[in-house]
């Protein structure tokens, strides 16, 4: 009997190890949208609560259904996004003025403010609505003032931006290395749930880890779920001052580059097209596009020399 018990314990240990291995590799290889497709909504094999825990998903995201938007609403948001990308210092009143006087599109400032909130752009300052921290979350000091950044993996930055498509819009999160401008990882989502931010962070840390991780004070980035990932990796946390868009200047420039060189000219029709197109563009940006600030070397060349 004792040998049978030992065999059972050994089998349990083996199955536990295999389960952990499968969980780790499944979560690391699939993005949030792909993992959502694995959930059995009938709960016939495992309870849904167990499935979302194993797949590291937010349960509320399973029930999200995109709301159709009118063509006019999408057109307005695309106009706002282009103005905001070109003039990131403009708040909703200046954007309203620009639309009326320069674009000759009649709209009032309350409508502009409403659209900007729906897009995740905060009025007054050119930051995302995510720059409003949760009151209970810790705000870390800004560590980059006066810092000489002279090697890869010294400082990484993360941010979220709005991506227009013909019938809807998406949110793009990316992590960039300040020194080389190399995009370590990125992901698109149709919601502002924190899952895609955490997923992107873990996958970037599979490449390397930064000495300092910089972000704005958004609720995603002040969340302990996010900060703990980098603290566990041995990184220090740095956060921009409120309302200081240029504290995170290199990722702001990345957004401008992606939008002017890819998003706007391509005018993607569907989320699938946007994912494929952005994937191809970021691959080009990292590996083929020479950067003037890097003496016309590519981000990948500089980052590879770390």
Automatic annotation (TrEMBL):
GO terms for biological process: DNA integration. It holds the Pfam family rve_2. GO terms for molecular function: nucleic acid binding. InterPro entries: HTH-like_dom, Integrase_cat-core, RNaseH-like_sf, RNaseH_sf, Transpos_IS3, Transposase_IS3/IS150/IS904. Residues 148-306 form the Integrase catalytic domain. Involved in the transposition of the insertion sequence. NCBIfam families: transpos_IS3. This is Integrase catalytic domain-containing protein. It comes from Johnsonella ignava ATCC 51276.
């Amino acid at each position: 009997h004792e040998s049978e018990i030992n065999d059972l314990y050994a089998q349990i240990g083996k199955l536990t190890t295999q389960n952990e291995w499968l969980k780790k590799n499944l979560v690391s290889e699939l993005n949030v949208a792909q993992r959502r497709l694995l959930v059995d909504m009938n709960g016939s094999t495992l309870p849904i609560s167990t499935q979302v825990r194993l797949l590291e998903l937010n349960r509320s995201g399973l029930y999200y259904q995109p709301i159709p938007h009118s063509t006019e609403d999408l057109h307005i948001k695309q106009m706002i996004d282009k103005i905001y990308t070109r003039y990131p210092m403009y708040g909703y009143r200046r954007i309203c003025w620009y639309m009326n006087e320069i674009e000759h599109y009649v709209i009032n400032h309350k409508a502009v403010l409403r659209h900007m909130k729906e897009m995740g752009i905060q009025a007054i300052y050119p930051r995302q609505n995510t720059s409003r921290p949760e009151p209970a979350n810790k705000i870390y000091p800004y560590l980059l003032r006066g810092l000489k950044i002279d090697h890869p993996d010294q400082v990484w930055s993360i941010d979220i931006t709005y991506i227009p498509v013909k019938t809807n819009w998406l949110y793009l999160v990316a992590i960039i290395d300040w020194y080389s401008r190399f995009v370590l990882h990125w992901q698109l989502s149709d919601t502002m749930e924190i899952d895609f931010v955490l997923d992107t962070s873990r996958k970037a840390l599979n490449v390397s880890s930064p000495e300092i991780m910089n972000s704005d004070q958004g609720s995603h980035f002040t969340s302990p779920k996010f900060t703990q990932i980098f603290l566990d990796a041995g990184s220090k946390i740095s956060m921009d001052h409120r309302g200081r868009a240029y504290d995170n200047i290199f990722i702001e420039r990345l957004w401008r580059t992606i939008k002017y060189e890819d998003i706007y000219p391509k005018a993607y029709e569907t989320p699938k097209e946007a994912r494929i197109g952005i994937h191809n563009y970021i691959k080009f940006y990292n590996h083929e596009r020479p950067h003037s600030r890097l003496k016309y070397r590519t981000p990948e060349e500089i980052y590879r020399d770390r």
